[in-house]
Design a protein that fits this description.
The protein is of the alpha+beta class and 349 residues long. It has helices spanning 13-17, 58-71, 94-103, 134-144, 146-149, 199-205, 231-235, 282-298, 305-312, 314-321, 336-341; strands at 22-29, 32-37, 42-48, 76-78, 84-87, 119-120, 160-163, 177-182, 211-214, 218-221, 248-253, 268-275. The strands form 3 sheets. The protein has a 5-stranded antiparallel beta sheet. A 5-stranded mixed beta sheet has the order 6-7-8-11-12, covered by helices on one side. The protein has a two-stranded antiparallel sheet with strand order 9-10. It starts with 12 loop residues before the first helix and ends in an 8-residue tail after the last helix. Residues 343-347 have low confidence and may be disordered.
Length: 349
């Protein structure tokens, strides 16, 4: 159908010739992927680490385009996690391309048993719901784990995702380590601005029925039911949420979107709250390091964090990482006993 899929002109010749005919692929060196087709033809791809959201200058884009013209027949692509790939690089030019990329100050890597590109939502750049600054936090994490992107020294792939608020646009809940912004105060009701809002819609959109109409006051919010998601603020600007003094982040672990191993899983909360302390983000970086270091030392080959925790149990996870357990970390979901707490003779909450 016209207009559906990738236009043929945007597909390199090597991909067009072997479309649907690939037999195998392997990582031949950090950041370099080799695909082999049924015909025996090989396709080499070089992956480059990018800033979160792939926010780079026009000058840098043009420099990468020049490299693509020289090494990959003008073809570039962005991965789902915003890494940049040169596809169809002749094998004899791979090392030369890596040298040119390194000279630009970028690193080649992010394949297989390494840190994959850290992704975030746009946060305060475009959204009024953010409880943290995901892009600056991602930059600090990139610096802390820089070496893990450019080599293959981890037990398995490591994906870190950051969302600025519980709406989770950054998909932290399905990453090995997810960092999600948390509001700790309920929305404020600005009565004089409520006339701009459709009150029945505001009441109905609250997922926990925390908002009720009140004669004279317009709306009232029950703090015991509010989950600080900000859905009401998206509908009504008279209900702003966010407090610079109390907003922060929570850390989740064990999420996975892929079907390998034990299959997809949602991450679980292990650090309920850490304050926003830019620009160094010391508390957050230190907690993430604890998790990664414990996993690096104890996990088996190709064992993602979710599979590692499934094997050792949550009690040992907290012991190995040194993270202090909190009652707020406990899963009180109605099906927790069946799906999380494993109520059997090998109790591993």
């Amino acid at each position: 159908m016209v207009g559906i899929g990738v236009p043929e002109l945007m597909i390199p010749d090597v991909l067009r010739r072997n479309y649907g005919r690939w037999e195998s692929h392997e990582v031949v060196k950090p950041g370099v992927l080799k695909h082999v087709s049924e015909s025996g033809e090989e396709c080499y791809t070089v992956r480059v680490g990018m800033p979160s959201n792939a926010r780079i200058s026009t000058k840098t884009v043009l420099a990468f385009c020049d490299l693509a013209d020289e090494y990959s027949d003008g073809y570039l692509r962005l991965t789902q996690r915003h890494a940049l790939e040169f596809v169809g690089v002749p094998v004899e030019k791979v090392d030369s391309l890596i040298r040119d990329i390194t000279a630009m100050g970028y690193v080649v890597g992010g394949l297989d048993r390494s840190l994959h590109n850290i992704v975030t939502c746009a946060g305060w750049f475009h959204c009024q719901l953010g409880a943290t600054d995901p892009l600056s936090l991602a930059q600090k994490l990139n610096e802390a784990f820089f070496e893990d992107f450019g080599d293959e020294a981890l037990p398995a792939k490591l994906k870190i995702s950051i969302a600025a608020c519980p709406n989770n646009c950054g998909e932290g809940i399905t990453a090995d380590i997810g960092i999600i912004g948390i509001h700790r105060d309920i929305p404020r009701v600005i009565k004089e601005n409520l006339k701009e809002c459709e009150l029945p819609l505001v009441v109905s959109i609250c997922p926990t029925a925390a908002i009720k109409p009140k004669r004279g006051d317009g709306l009232v919010i029950n703090p015991d039911r509010c989950m600080h998601c900000g859905s009401c603020y998206m509908t009504c600007p008279a209900l702003p949420i966010g407090n610079a003094e109390t907003d922060g982040v929570g850390i989740f672990v064990g999420g996975k979107a892929g079907t390998s191993g034990n299959g997809p899983s949602f991450a679980k909360l292990v650090v309920p709250y850490l304050p926003n302390h830019p620009p160094d983000w010391t508390e957050v970086v230190n907690e993430v390091k604890k998790i990664v270091d414990a996993w690096r030392k104890d996990a088996r080959a190709y064992e993602r964090i979710a599979d590692w925790i499934e094997r050792i149990g949550w009690e040992r996870f907290y012991k190995l990482t040194g993270i202090e357990i909190s009652s707020k970390s406990m899963d009180n979901f109605v099906f927790a006993l069946e799906r999380s707490l494993k109520d059997n003779v090998r109790l591993r909450w």
